[in-house]
Amino acid sequence: LVGGTAHVVVGCGDLDDGVGVVKTSTKVNDDAVIEVAAADHYVSRAAHKLIAGLDAFGIDPSGRVALDMGASTGGFTQVLRERGARSVIAVDVGHGQLSPTIVSDAHVVSVEGFNVRHMTRGGLAEVSGIVAPPHLIVGDLSFISLTHVLAAVVDVMAADADVILLIKPQFEVGRTGVREGLVTDAGKRADAVANVLWAAWDAGLATHGFIASPIIGTHGNAEFVAHFRAVGDDRDAGNPTQWLSTVNRLAGA
Asked: Which residues in 231-253 are b (16+ Cβ under 10 Å) and which e?
């Protein structure tokens, strides 16, 4: 931030007053007024990304068996339980990340060291102890393209399941598409998102909703939330072609 006294609010994405800062490396003037934004009760800020998707797409988790892919500290899982999900299978390839408050919930099954790329219905049931296929699948995955996991999602989901995925272009464009972790080319950003929608279509998932995430991702990357359901008898419903103009507009292309 340069020129004059600045009012900086740390830890907030959208502000009516001041400048929102989420990166600890952001440079400010010596005379900048620093204010730490009040924290909410969620274990991670990612929770607000799922909240935005659920609200925008009109999806109610109540009574559903849900699968949270890439659960990490448990922000998505927390939202699902608060909104009435009967049980949540929280899977992550890592270990020891899930917040103790989430682990202590008897309706949350934590599965660590689990790679969703190789997920099968039988394998998921075996490691979770929950035989019923998930009727709601959410995902916030990093360091892997969603195109590599969509077939597995289709394999484990209930026939009438809703799927809400966070699309992160920085993990879709390949190494040549990022500079210091940031996707700066709007065209590549839009193409990366479109590739995910088409890969989902090829796997048997139709697009039923698409919004920009209300919170930016790491390094300031724009991210997006998409809603999928199984392709139905009407092959035109949910075809990605219907969403490309929205994708381009929200991606800035």
From this structure: beeeeeebbbeebbebbbebbeb
